[in-house]
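User
Please review the sequence:
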Amino acid sequence: HTIGLLTQVLDKSGSIIDETVNEIPLSISQLYTTNEKEKSNGGTRISNTAEIEEIHFDDEGNSTFIINYGFNNDEGYLYETSFIIMQLNKKNEVNWVKSLPKALRYNNNTYKTFWNENNFELFFIGDPKCNDLTPSDKSPGIGEKYISSYTVDNATGEAVRTTYFNSEKIGKIGLYQYSPFNFSQISEHEFYFKCYKKGKEDIFVKFGY
């Protein structure tokens, strides 16, 4: 089924004075979905899901929507396979829309966005085998868990994917109790987060590109 964004303009009394619907083409929304059986929990896709997670407004009047897209299977599990990102201008016309794969993973909705002057960084736990934007029906099911990010150009929506390191360990040090939601930005290209290693010792991990 086709999905899209409904935007409404309200006056001070709350009455709708303008309404716009922008559909997301199936060629975008269906790019990283699959009907095949999932390796982890069995079952097949029965319904697609799309949830707006974040809206960012810039100084030029553009609004950028970040949508978690995925599906429910007939065993009751939710898989989120990709981000759909759409930017509208101040007239609510589409500037660009992109679909960016994550990994075929159950309940994979934790992410963090850092907005810079000309681009934004979208951090998530991803599968490095999706680095070449291979559709998820060619990825290995649940996949591996690596700190990953997309650097997205604000003007064009063009994205570059970076994979940093295994999210469960660095070398021989196991990492525990953290998520991209807790990441902080030091500069445009440097980031850090707090987590625990074995024995509940606090450690800080700094990384960048």
Notes: Residues 115 and 121 are 7 Å apart (CA to CA).
